[in-house]
Design a protein that fits this description.
By secondary structure, this protein is an alpha+beta fold. It has a domain of about 120 residues: NADH Oxidase. A four-stranded antiparallel beta sheet has the order 1-2-4-3, sandwiched between helices. Helix 1 crosses helix 5 and helix 3 packs across helix 6. It is globular. The protein starts with a helix and ends in a 20-residue tail after the last strand. The model has no long low-confidence stretch (mean pLDDT about 95). Bound molecules: flavin mononucleotide (FMN). The site of flavin mononucleotide has 8 residues, from strand 3 and helix 6.
């Protein structure tokens, strides 16, 4: 796929087919991720993959419970209460794969920024394979909790920087209109 088409039609996908993603393809996406630029060429990133359906369902349910528990201290989250309380709602939308891009802040001060770039590479590479992705900010919050880190075996020194779900989309990729770029100056 043409790079421009991949960039313009990558979308956060929130509905997935019940079709597994081949391991070799997931590896290819991770290979694409590590082609990203990185401060000091430190490559201060690590990757973890969860594709076990039971583990994913467990993570989904625990993230919802964790987020519900946060609402009182973070009032803007109140608008998510209805979906978080809906037992049928899957916070990871039933995606078959979750890739965790993990930063090593002890290795490089720009580790988290580097991981965001790696994540975008991964998402664009996925688009090229006809795969959908979505960054899972809520899952990041849970996995970074003491319980989440322990239960899902996140090693010390690794910060969850970008949890990305991956799967075959059950919806079409569509281009969207963005606001025109806010160009501050061009001297
Ligand atoms: C840091 C970050 C966290 C995000 N967290 C979530 C999330 O928890 N759940 C979700 O459905 N989408 C999440 N998204 C996706 C955004 O909602 C999405 O990128 C935005 O609405 C723009 O849509 P697009 O990706 O289709 O262009 C997140 C995106 C980023 C960059």
């Amino acid at each position: 796929m043409d790079l421009k088409e991949a960039i313009y039609t990558r979308r956060s996908i929130r509905a997935y087919e019940r079709k597994p993603v081949e391991k070799a393809v997931v590896r290819e996406l991770i290979e694409a991720a590590v082609q990203a630029p990185c401060g000091m060429a430190a490559q201060a990133w690590s990757f973890a993959v969860i594709e076990d359906a039971e583990l994913l369902a467990d993570l989904d349910a625990r993230t919802k419970t964790f987020m519900l528990g946060m609402i009182e201290s973070v009032p803007p989250l109140e608008r998510y209460r209805p979906i978080l309380e809906d037992p049928g709602f899957r916070i990871m939308f039933g995606a078959p794969v979750l890739v965790l891009v993990c930063a090593r802040p002890d290795v490089s001060p720009s580790a988290e920024t580097d991981c965001a770039l790696a994540a975008e590479n991964l998402m664009l590479a996925a688009r090229g394979h006809g795969l959908g992705t979505c960054w899972m900010g809520f899952v990041e919050l849970y996995l970074e909790s003491a319980e989440g880190r322990e239960r899902f075996g996140i090693p010390e020194g690794h910060k969850i920087a970008a949890p990305i779900i991956v799967g075959y989309p059950a919806v079409k990729f569509t281009a969207v209109n963005r606001k025109a770029p806010d160009l501050l100056f061009w001297k």
